Amino acid sequence: MTRSGETDADTPGDTDSGSADSAHTGDSADSAETATSADHAPHVCMLLPGAFPPDIRVRKEVTALRTAGYRVTVVASGPADRPKRETVAGASVVRLDRETRSGRAAWLASAGINLPTAIHPRWLVAVRRLHRRDPVDVLHVHDLPLGGTALLARRLFGTPVVLDLHENYPEAVTQWRRTTRGFRSSPLGWLKRRLFPRSRWQRLERRWVRRADHVLTVVPEARDHYLRDCGADPSRVTVVSNTVELAQFTPGGGRGEGSVRPTGTVDSGPDAASDVCTVSYVGGFGAHRGLDTAIRAVAALESGVELLLVGGGGGTTESELRALIAELGVGDRVTITGWVDFEEVPGYVAASDACLVPHARTPHTETTVPHKLFQYMATGKPVVVTDVAPLARIVDETESGLVVPAGDHDAMADAIRRLCGDAGLCGELGRNGRTAVEAEYNWDRDAKRLVAVYDEVCDRTSGSYEGEGLSVVGGER
């Protein structure tokens, strides 16, 4: 199979920024464009159970594949305020209807079938419609929940499956469910917790990882897990990490060059200098993020150190964090900005003196790595991370920050105090981080690994998938 020399310029309506300008509108995957006979570029269909945009890993992968000459369609479930069909980052995006009465009914019916079978008919129908109009050469599945659906589609249409596992899903679900409510607030969620316990997710993970044509993961620790615990073929598991696009995050800012006001807005320039040492965290507020440890660390420090939490998400965890801030009396030194557009993130990082990844140690965090670590390093900021395996390995290897025991707020306070009191150390660690990102931990390198996987999958003799042992009932056999 050959790829065309197609580039992003060949597709109108590129909305990489996530703005609402769209090239097309429509109500379902049935409205997908029919490929012309002259276009022989392999067609990748990405299945994303979440929204696109703003998922930055999906956007980076789309851009890499488009640049390499692949055509990409993303079938996603949101956002609800975007057109049902548009072009984003050069990919044709199809969003499944969850807003109309018929769309909600179809979604609930599909979710009901998914509970006993692990197959989502709603997504299977979307793939079938797309495949009929513009044959799909590779199905790229983001995360585990749609793995069984994609493997059934492979059996029906002969389309190879790339399973892109952003995290250790069975362990991630365990963490997420610790903050979910009971039956009255979410009957379907309550039922899913009982029909999809951790043990079932682990069984599905083992089966689907072995059957996928290729598995992508984000750190070597996760690759080791799939080889050791799932019996994956080593030649078919590749690390494509959550590294950074160098042009988006450049060194600069910090004390004397910028400050973060209590409102969470960034000031920069000669009048923005401040004696306050600003330590920042960027990202979600899940319980496994360890933000309670960061807040307690700041409470243990003298005045002059402020913590900026760039992100949010509401829900139980944010409420608990706000209550902790009030309890410790540090409301004047800890600011929660709420969600900000990704385009604003580099400014917040640049205006900080040091940055945190305070993750708790769990089987989930031990097998993943957040984008934020590489964003901090690319901006030349010293980092304080916990002794979670991937974080500690990268920071120790690159000498880009300080590692403290997870959950130990006194140790974190000592590390923050050390950085805030030693500008020379901050500069040295920050430069080391930037050097490491330029040499190794950048998206250019990971994009090449991604494209190499696709070239190999498309060139491989696919053979027949008949009788591969996948049944609809239970999603496994």
Automatic annotation (TrEMBL):
Keyword Glycosyltransferase applies:
yes
Domain Glycosyltransferase subfamily 4-like N-terminal span(s) in chain numbering: 57-242
Name one molecular function that GO assigns to this entry.
glycosyltransferase activity
Q: Which Pfam families match?
A: Glyco_trans_1_4, Glyco_trans_4_4
Residue spans with biased composition (Low complexity)?
Answer: 25-37
Q: Which UniProt keywords apply?
A: Glycosyltransferase, Transferase
Q: Where are the transmembrane segments?
A: none
Superkingdom to which the source organism belongs? Archaea
Region entry Disordered: which residue ranges? 1-37, 250-271
- Family matches, as InterPro entries: Glyco_trans_4-like_N
For the keyword Glycosyltransferase, the answer is yes
* Protein name, per record: Glycosyltransferase family 4 protein
